[in-house]
Amino acid sequence: MRLAMIGLGRMGGNMSERLMKGGHEVVVWDRTPATTQKYASMGATPASDLKDVVAKLKAPRIVWIMVPAGKPVDDTIAQLTAGLSRGDVIIDGGNSNFHDTMRRAAELQAKGIEFIDSGTSGGIWGLANGYCLMVGGEDGAVGFLEPAFKTLAPDDGYAHVGPSGAGHFVKMVHNGIEYGLMQAYAEGFDVMSSSEFNLDLHEIAGIWRYGSVVRSWLLELLYAALEAEGNDLKHIAGYVEDSGEGRWTVFEAINESVPAPVISAALFARFASREEESFAAKINAALRNQFGGHAVKSE
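Above: the chain sequence. Below: its structure as tokens.
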């Protein structure tokens, strides 16, 4: 199968390499020319711009985009559609909001262009281990693309989960769950770190990988981080960003009247990690002083 990959960052580049290793022909483009040339040296066909990407494909053209959610996706689609024809396919493998995906699919369907959303999980390890793919779109288009999906995914790691938007919806919830899992590990290890027992957190993470009911890939990654950085993680700042999917999961839980306290708390914990000092904590201290005469600490 011949297809293009636009955006060769941590995910798109490795996905291109895995596709090529699986026997697919890949046209590549990235806004950084040196990155495009890196994958050209591995056997990909380089393109000079998005117009050239389309020119280097044959109908029905397949273009996979791995760019940041929001305006970059819309801008990329707008530039591509100027050269695409009826029957061509665009795949968005990034973390787009599923509402945007449904809108884009309807707009492109009116032009006869298929739009597929592929929620993609696997991170920097996907090149070796494969990517879990949660795919939304029309049956015919998804079936046509299955050779690429099956190359990218490990055995049993790919599913056509529903119509347009469903893939990104499932990936959104996947990332919301990830927030909760990560926060649970973080809090548990914080409790152990603060205990009187002088515990070896690296050792504990290690044994929990075998036989424990809390074993997981995230735990394996935590073990690797503690091995690399030490039990105190002194070289890592406790500042945690969020890329949007956790927020969207909470929004949808509210819209659906579904209680999601763990995911919500995990999201708020990330917000709290970015505050040098909590103003809310100052309010609490001031109130305790006012109603109970409790001492306050000065800055």
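DSSP finds 13 helices and eight strands in the chain.
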